């Protein structure tokens, strides 16, 4: 079975351009030496002197984009040396022109030194930030208890791994439990709320015997977090699931979140569950939350999606038809299904502006000896 990756190892690099801090592409690194070779070849082939010596002055600044101070200094030295080789006849520069190129070369070395130091610092800070974000939402294992898992997470804010969506799959004394939700807002402003809710969920998995009690714990967590902030209006939508020991029986609680879809054969249908209010309104302690019980078959799959998927629209304003697309992808393996839906979603709505989370859960009962 393919390796599952809910948080791909290169999501940030894929979404950053080289002008925004990513490593420069190969052509940027090749350009300075290629320009030197091209100028030398052109002057040697031409019978008459070519007025192209001014191009040499652009080589040290171009080297700053991708080379360190030592390589930039070496390219600057090559430029100055070429101006003194009679065979190239590069305009026979005067003292003023030569001093200008020397000054540009020295300045380029200094700028390259500063850029290299800043790149190293930014790389360290980015590594720390990614480690902190992965600690909030760690990679999803491909199997938890008797449940096979596959997921995909794309944060709306560029350069981040975590946004306003959250999910987790945990095994505990009361079975495998799953949460997927969406807090108010998105981006970095919602990360602290996500971390708080996931911490509450991981604790509730261990000591709350019923799924409604887990929802109540998350609701209370949001109330406590917003108690000291006037008009905080802090809330979150969530879907919670609890699998039996053989994973062929699941209980579902939906608090303002889109209900899970059951993919059975070539059909994708929305589970009929009793919806409840979003978390954070103080209503989950009333004991009125009803958990819907669903019997599964070994080949069934449950597909959970955040608002970023079901509310995505195309240019004409039509919503993404998730159920229909899932039915069309019924032959896909569970591990490949989130990536397939994501690729289709991007074609349907190229400008996805919200956090996108998908989770596929498939029962995998242990084989009897």
Task: Walk me through the structure.
The chain is an alpha+beta fold. The model is unreliable at 1-15 (pLDDT under 50). The radius of gyration is 29 Å and the shape is elongated. It has helices at 11-15, 26-45, 59-64, 69-83, 95-136, 191-207, 211-226, 307-310, 322-328, 337-348, and strands at 143-144, 147-154, 165-172, 175-183, 236-243, 249-255, 261-264, 267-270, 275-276, 292-295, 301-305, 356-363. Helix 4 packs antiparallel against helix 5 and helix 6 packs antiparallel against helix 7 (211-226). Helices cover 39% and strands 19% of the residues.
What is the beta-strand fraction? Answer: 15-25%
Helix/strand-derived category reads alpha+beta
Q: Count helical runs.
A: 10
* Amino-to-carboxy terminus distance: 21 Å
Let me know the number of strands.
12
Element-by-element helix/strand order: HHHHHEEEEHHEEEEEEEHHHE
Poorly predicted regions are 1-15
Report strand order across the widest sheet. Answer: 1-2-12-11-7-8
Whole-number average pLDDT?
Answer: 82
Which oligomeric form is depicted?
Answer: single chain
Assign an overall shape. elongated
Radius of gyration: 29 Å
Portion of residues within helices: 25-40%
Largest sheet: 6 strands, antiparallel
């Amino acid at each position: 079975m393919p390796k599952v990756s809910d948080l791909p190892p290169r999501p940030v690099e894929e979404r950053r351009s080289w002008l925004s801090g990513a490593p420069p592409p190969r052509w940027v690194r090749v350009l300075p030496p290629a320009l030197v070779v091209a100028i030398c070849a052109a002057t040697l082939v031409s019978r008459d002197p070519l007025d192209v010596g001014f191009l040499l002055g652009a080589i040290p600044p171009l080297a700053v984009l991708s080379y360190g101070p030592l390589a930039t200094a070496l390219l600057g030295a090559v430029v100055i040396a070429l101006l003194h080789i009679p065979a190239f006849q590069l305009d026979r520069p005067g003292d003023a022109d030569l001093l200008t190129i020397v000054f540009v070369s020295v300045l380029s070395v200094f700028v390259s030194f500063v850029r290299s130091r800043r790149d190293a610092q930014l790389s360290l800070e980015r590594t720390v930030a990614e480690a902190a974000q992965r600690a909030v939402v760690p990679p999803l294992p491909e199997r938890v208890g008797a449940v096979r898992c596959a997921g995909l997470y794309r944060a709306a804010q560029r350069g981040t791994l975590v946004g306003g969506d959250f999910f987790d799959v945990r095994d505990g004394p009361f079975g495998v439990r799953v949460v997927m939700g969406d807090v108010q807002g998105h981006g970095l402003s919602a990360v602290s709320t996500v971390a708080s809710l996931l911490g509450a969920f991981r604790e509730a998995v261990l000591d709350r015997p019923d799924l409604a009690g887990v929802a109540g714990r998350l609701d209370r967590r949001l109330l406590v977090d917003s108690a000291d902030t006037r008009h905080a209006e802090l809330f979150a939508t969530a879907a919670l699931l609890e699998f039996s020991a053989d994973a062929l029986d699941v209980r579902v609680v939906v608090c303002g979140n889109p209900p899970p879809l059951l993919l059975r054969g070539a059909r994708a249908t929305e589970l009929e569950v009793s919806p409840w209010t979003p978390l954070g309104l103080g209503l989950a302690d009333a004991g009125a939350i009803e958990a819907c019980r669903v019997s599964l078959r070994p080949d069934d799959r449950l597909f959970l999606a955040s608002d970023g998927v079901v509310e995505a629209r195309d240019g004409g304003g039509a919503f993404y038809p998730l159920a229909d697309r899932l039915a069309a992808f019924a032959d896909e393996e569970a591990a490949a299904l989130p990536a397939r839906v994501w690729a289709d979603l991007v074609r349907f709505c190229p400008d996805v502006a919200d956090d996108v989370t998908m989770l596929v859960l498939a029962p995998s009962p242990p084989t009897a000896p």
